[in-house]
Every structure is written in structure tokens, then in C-alpha cells.
Amino acid sequence: MEIIKAVLFGIVEGITEWLPVSSTGHMILLDEFIQLKGNEEFINVFLVVIQLGAIFAVVLQFWNQLFPFQWKDKRKPFVEMDKMILWGKILLACIPAAIIGILFDSVFEELFYHAVPVAVALIVFGIAFIIIERWNKGRKPKIRTVDDLTVSAVLIIGVFQLLAAVFPGTSRSGATIVGALLIGVSRKAASEFTFFLAVPVMLGASLLKVLKYGFAFSGSELLVLGVGMVTAFFVSIVVIRFLMDYIKKHDFQAFGWYRIALGIVVLIGSMVGLVQV
């Protein structure tokens, strides 16, 4: 039964980590109906570390864009500077969330990891998606590719990622995409850069959780964790491909309306006692 639960959590993680709909909001709802057995510390680790499966999916999908080391004629190694510059932008955008997250993670979790703040963040950023997409209608993006991102644009996107670190329910992908669209980045570039940002962010978050837990996993805990990660990996591959195809013909308004509906569900659930965080 725990393996089946791990599969379900992996499916939800793989879908909601990349679509701008808040994995936190969905995990809250899923946890109300399907609760993993085990101590609270392990469950907290599980919900973060299964994100590694989603990260491996990004690395696989975008390997050619992310891996800077190549071998000419299979003998002479060299570094592609454009990819090193891209990694510089990725790390630069991660600095605000990394600093604040490390210093105040437990504070934010205590203050905002509750049903009402999560629901409010879902609704607010859902409205933001709708407003920004309607405002952008007919406008040509100023920044069409990830390579065109300037230092100032990267820092602005990093600040929006910080909002997701502070307010659960904002959605890391949702916050960064909203920030990117707001400054004139194309949907494709905004989505790709969001995927790239996830690599150091989730690796760092997972490492911190594991170090805090102390690697004291039992055999059954490792099995549950492994199943969740593998499931998240395969689901993420499908979802990433879906999103990149979807945005070729559609905007993000549908996700905005979905976020608003989910936020209302979480609010109602908290008022009637069905959702407790």
C-alpha cells in the first residue's frame, strides 16, 4: 500500500512541479486523503526529495542545452562558453531565493505553510496569469530565447522565484513564468528558463533535507523514496514535453483559471475542516 501511495505522490509531483499550478497546493490536498505512514520527519524529506526524479527529467530533456563540456573528435575536451554563460545566469537567478531560503526557511514554513496562505497564493497568482496574458496579447516579446536574457532580466526572475520560496502555493514555476512574462520574455524562453532554474534549486533543497534528516533511512523508507522519485521522473518527461508543445498554440490563462478554482477549493476545505495544514 505504501508503494502505491508513493506512486500517486510521484505522479502528482511530476505533473504539478512543471505546470504553473503549485505542487504544494496539490500535495496538501493529496495528503489529506492519502497519508504516508512513517514519522513526520521522513514524510517531510520524502515530499522534497522525490523532486530529484523531476530534476533528472529536466537534465535528460535539455542535456544538449545544459551540458557545457564536449569532446571534439572524441579526444579533445573543450567547454562551450555560451552554456557556461547560461549556467551563470541560472545561478545568478537562484541567489535571492537561496540566501533567504537558507536563513528563514523554517520561519516561512511556520508562518505560511497553512491552507489559507496557500489558497490565497494560488488565487493571486492565478489572477496574475490572466491579467498578464491579456495585457501581452498582440505584443511581441522583447526576449525570445534564453540566450537573450539580460542580467537585469535574470535578477527580476530570481526575485519572483523568491516569492515562491516565501509563500507556498505561489508555485516556483508559476512565479518565475509570471515574472518573465511581465518583463517581455517569450513563453518558450520563460518555460525553459524555469526548468533550468529548478536544477540547482531542487538539488539544494533535497540536499539540505537529507543532511537535516541524517541519512538515517530504513530499507522500507528508501524503497518508498525510490519509487516516488522514479515515478516523478517518468511523469515529468511527459509533462515537460506536453507543456512545450502546449505553449506553441496556447497561453497560460487556462492555468490561471485552474489555480483560482483550486484556491477556492482549498479555502472551502479549510473552512469546513476537510483541509488542515
Determine Rg (CA atoms, Å): 19 Å
* Order of H and E elements: HHHHHEEHHHHHHH
Overall body shape:
globular
Order of strands in the sheet with most strands: 1-2
Mean pLDDT: 87
| Number of domains as seen in the coordinates | 1
The N- to C-terminal Cα distance equals 23 Å
Helix fraction?
Answer: over 70%
Helix/strand structural class = mainly alpha
Which range does the strand content fall in? Answer: under 5%
The counted number of beta strands is 2
Number of helices: 12
Largest β sheet strand count, sense and barrel closure: 2 strands, antiparallel
Give the uncertain stretches in residue-range form: none
GO biological process, one term: regulation of cell shape
Protein name: Undecaprenyl-diphosphatase
Membrane topology: Multi-pass membrane protein
Subcellular location: Cell membrane
